[in-house]
Amino acid sequence: MAENILYGLTHIFTWQNMLFIFLGIFVGLFVGGLPGLSVTLAVALMIPFTFGLPPESAILLLLGVYCAGTYAGSVGAVLLRTPGTPASAATAVDGFALSQKGEAGKALNVSLIASVTGGLISGILLLFAAPQIAKFALNFGPPEYFALALFGLTIIASVSGKSFNKGLVMASLGVFIASIGLDPLAGSQRLTFGSSALLSGVNIIPALIGLFAIAEVFRQVEKGMKKISTPSKVDNEKIGWRFLRPYKRVIFKSSLIGSFIGSIPGTGGAIASFISYNEAKRTSKNPEQYGKGSLEGVAASEASNNGTTGATLIPMMTLGIPGDVVTAVLLSSLLIQGLQPGPELFEQHGGMVYTVMIGFIVVNICMYIVAKLSIRGFKRITLVPSSILFPIILVFCLVGSFAYDNSMTAVWIAVAFGFIGYILPKFGYPVVPMLIAIILGPLAETSLRQSLIMSEGSLVIFTERPVAVVFLLLAVLSVFVALYNHRKTRLSVH
Fold it and tell me: Residues of the signal sequence (predicted)?
């Protein structure tokens, strides 16, 4: 191992590999910050540029895009309430509220430091604990996935705002929308109303763009604001790692949650960020600040969704099983290079593997440097006149929706969700519970039905699996805590 680590360090710090790392970071920051242009799309677009490159250089380039793109989703979430990726949707809840208070700089700095910390922790776990974590993740079957999804769905109780009932209504609407398309097990059509365009269901990307980005454009146009941020100046405080001391515990915990969830194939940053956000709110000394501009909430979300980045590589490299959609693309890039992921990869190409794992840590450090220098420029976006900025945002939203699957259906879905996100909050119906249900609904349904098939219809299967029992108990605890906080809030108001 020591020999492989030395080999990795020697090969990473060549000018060619460092150039590819920074190139990947710039591409990731640019694409990840644009609504609808997902990290998956950015990584896929860069694959043709890796043809002919050495395997180490090719993977380091793509890792730069992956890590920077995941972080960059928070820039639009904070400044414009337009999360660049689904993983940054939780960040938009508090990040944009901070931007409206003229504290965009604080939010962006907290987001960056939390993102880098999450990435570094997941990178260290990737380097030293990959095989052990991958073996544990393999124990996850349908019962464990259902319990995890159910635990994630309990977040709805915490993000329902003043009315739990209205949050439940929106969550039910989200489950209904998630059911549109082909039945995941039987293959029959559901709720398509005879439309072939709905056979693939309602994808999260155009839904996310509509609920947050397009809806926010409608709101800002209605207000007739001259600038996105109400204050005439943006904060120019110098914020470093010391500023994060009050949030170090939540960042560390959220990074571990993200790393754990990311190591489970088929999950991802969106699930991890909402679970961490809910857990941070549950244990916070100031839970009432969440949703109104909590730096703690921003830190929890970003540490977690970037904590998944290194963890998703664990099952990919050790077992050949992609942890999420992005790592599925990365897996194909390894195959293009003539490398077969799995245990033999460590035996036959140990030096290259450790170059990639150490390189992941270096990518996060370089990303911090580049993004830190860019924050001052990012903040200036809030001072652009709305007459210029809103049309640009709207165009990017529509183009990003179309680019997802090259169809106008995605564009109309984004516009429809834009109206939902604009109109329903006026009547006190929050959109976040619906988004959570759309994300977690398919996983919960599929894993529940698979579990019942395994047990021949018996629910006892969920009590026979220790990991599933733990998640179910956490789900019950999460609901009770959220309901208790709702009750306490109502009593204090009266």
Answer: none
pLDDT tens digits along 473-494: 888 887 777 676 666 655 554 5
Span 320-336, pLDDT tens digits: 666 666 776 777 777 77
- For tokens 């609901």, name the residue: 479
Contacts of 410 (CB under 8 A, 6+ apart): 203, 205, 206, 401, 402, 404
Contact 390, 224 (CB under 8 A): no
Domains held by the chain: number: 1
Give the three-state DSSP class for 86. Answer: helix
182 DSSP β-pair partners: 189
Give the mean pLDDT of the chain. 77
Is the Cβ–Cβ distance between 255 and 117 less than 8 Å? yes
Tokens representing residue 330 in the block: 């990365």
Q: What is the dihedral of CA 299, 427, 215, 409, to 10 degrees?
A: 110
| C-alpha to C-alpha distance for 138 and 156, rounded to whole angstroms | 28
User: What sign does the dihedral 383-210-275-71 (CA atoms) show?
Assistant: negative
Low-confidence ranges of the chain (pLDDT < 50): 226-234, 493
**What angle, 0 to 180 degrees and rounded to 10, lies between the N-to-C axes of helices 2-12 and 55-80?**
70
Q: How distant, in Å, are the alpha carbons of 195, 399, 448 from that of 191? A: 9, 27, 20
**How big is the chain by its Cα radius of gyration, in Å?**
22
Buried b (16+ CB within 10 A) or exposed e, 418-452: bebbbebbeeebbbbbbbbbbbbbbbbbbbbbbbb
Structure tokens at 412: 């109309």
Question: Following DSSP, what letter does each residue of 171-195 receive, concatenated?
Answer: HHHHHHHHT-EE-TTT--EES-TT-
Q: Are 411 and 398 in contact (CB under 8 A)?
A: yes
For 156, the enclosing helix (H) or strand (E) is helix 155-158
Residues 6+ apart with CB under 8 A from 189: 181, 182, 183, 199
Q: Give the domain range for residue 331.
A: 2-493
* DSSP bridge partners of 181: 190
Neighbours of 263 (CB within 10 A): 27
User: Which parts of 380-425 fold into alpha helices (H)?
Assistant: 386-405, 408-423
Do the bridges between strand 181-182 and strand 189-190 make them parallel or antiparallel, or are there none, so unpaired?
A: antiparallel
In the DSSP assignment, the letter for residue 416 is: H
